[in-house]
Prior knowledge:
- By secondary structure, the chain is of the alpha/beta class.
- The chain has one domain: TIM Barrel, CATH 3.20.20.100.
- The protein is 40% helix and 14% strand.
- The chain contains 10 helices and 7 strands.
- A 7-stranded parallel sheet has the order 1-2-3-4-5-6-7.
- Helix 2 links the parallel strand 1 and strand 2.
- Helix 1 packs across helix 2 and helix 5 (120-128) packs parallel to helix 6.
- The longest helix is centred in the first third of the chain and has 15 residues, at 63-77.
- The chain is globular and about 55 Å long.
- The protein binds NADP nicotinamide-adenine-dinucleotide phosphate.
- Residues 2-4, 6, 29, 87, 113, 115, 136, 164-168, 190, 207-212, 215, 218-219 line the site of NADP nicotinamide-adenine-dinucleotide phosphate.
Amino acid sequence: MGTWQTFDTAANRTPIVDEALSVGMNLFDSSPMYGRAEETLAQAVNGRRDRAIIATKIWTSSPTEGREQANHALRVFGRVDIYQVHNLVNCPAQLRMLEQLKGEGRVNAIGATHYDPGGFDDLCDLMRTGRLDMIQVPYNPRRREAELRVLPLAAELGLGVLTHSPLRFGVLDRPPSPDVIESFGVRTWPQAVLKWIASDPRVSAVLTATKTPGRPTENAQAGDPPWFDPDQRERLGHQSR
Ligand SMILES: NC(=O)c1ccc[n+]([C@@H]2O[C@H](COP(=O)([O-])OP(=O)(O)OC[C@H]3O[C@@H](n4cnc5c(N)ncnc54)[C@H](OP(=O)(O)O)[C@@H]3O)[C@@H](O)[C@H]2O)c1
């Protein structure tokens, strides 16, 4: 579950996290870029931190501020399971700091993200250095640039892949008829789109975001097999154009 926009709030998001955990959605992604989201998430997982996998990010060009962001995240979360360099901002310095924290056992995995396919060449160069465990990129039936180089390279190198913005880029704008949706073995169009992403064997986790009760359950149901075969993925790709 992502926290951009949905967790930048003084509202209590414990009920959404309760629902997410109850349906097996246990990976939460945040960033200092998302305003108060880290605090809101930390509050919502308080008392059951061990049930959650926390992914967050360093997002600053300043090494000093990067250290402050890490101190803050480690204070509110205790440890960070997946620590990512957000949009590759000052990667050389931030990666060195994250590698130090990993060496100290305060971070489990190191990642890097980019929201813009224009940054994918730089991301691929970084992946080839062997310094990353994970990457995070946008991916859905209407945003498929990651299929060209990023996903094949991640598979070749054995890197974990988090995908973001599964329901954006207009993919929900023109849903097909209920009959067509049901022919994919799901109830709703968002579930069909999410299952299309999760059925790609190179994808480790699909990050959705919501502040609406009921949607974590709806979205999590797309994370169960049976997965779409290549023909179903192709057909759904056409439906979402
Ligand atoms: N690294 C990066 O550069 C980057 C960039 C973007 C995002 N991210 C991360 O990836 C996470 C996921 O991306 P995203 O926030 O774009 O998520 P998303 O799930 O694609 O989009 C979230 C939006 O979809 C709506 N939604 C969720 N489930 C729905 C459903 N079943 N039916 C209809 N609408 C639904 C939500 O509205 P309601 O709240 O009203 O339900 C929300 O407005 C982010 O939160 C963030 O953690 C990273």
